[in-house]
């Protein structure tokens, strides 16, 4: 999950944060990152080097610690996956660190049988060389995959590729950034557990990947390997923001929040009648396969939405009537 307050859409409320800081929290996992004037602070679980503090860094960091190796660069955006992190500098360069399994760091590491006995982790931020010559403006991190968008609106993915859970066949993961063809000019990307969402410059929403619990918003649960345009009669305005949780998704259209996917009562961590969610905000914990508007007060306007593993939050402003 990413909240990027460097975006012009959020400039008017940046005074609510210390020194115009952006706050970025983990989608899955238990570690956090804090940006203050381009300087990166981290804390939490560091079992795979995801805090970027070096091999000698503590496995658990209880207080915010500055990432010293990045003090000479200005970080404008960061994203957290389950056990890896990605940052973009003000020059448009991309660095990644943490667990490298499935190629999610984009450095060319390929998972194999022998990788069980060696570490593919990067314990300090490392430049992704495949982006040389490109200026990246947006990034996202999921469980085992990552995504970036360059200034030309092209989307690049690296890490685990979606494959059917039936059978034993595994497709090749992308260990270096690979462009996603046939997508219009893109502005924003978000990575969930095993799905990806993109917003284009025309405010269209595209989704693909695992579709467990209907998290793609296409009306079914069939896996999709190529980007599909999500349409709904409920979308009266262009999509302005998207966030992916573990198996649920949230967007903003015309200041209203829409959610779909895993509601908590089916699948992961559901046992003995105890729900693990309610994260869709519809007053229940059932799954929704299509975008559904969250009922909120008519005099509030959503500015930003963010999905965690099984919870959702949003920033609103009040509209004078």
TrEMBL record:
Keywords assigned: Repeat
InterPro entries: RCC1-like_dom (IPR058923), RCC1/BLIP-II (IPR009091), Reg_chr_condens (IPR000408), Ub_ligase/GEF_domain (IPR051210)
Repeat (RCC) residue spans along the chain: 38-91, 92-152, 153-202, 203-255, 255-318
Every RCC1-like domain range: 35-312
Pfam family, one: WD40_RLD
Stretch forming the signal peptide: none
PANTHER family (alphabetical): REGULATOR OF CHROMOSOME CONDENSATION, UVB-RESISTANCE PROTEIN UVR8-RELATED
Protein name according to UniProt: Regulator of chromosome condensation (RCC1) family protein
Organism of provenance: Rhynchospora pubera
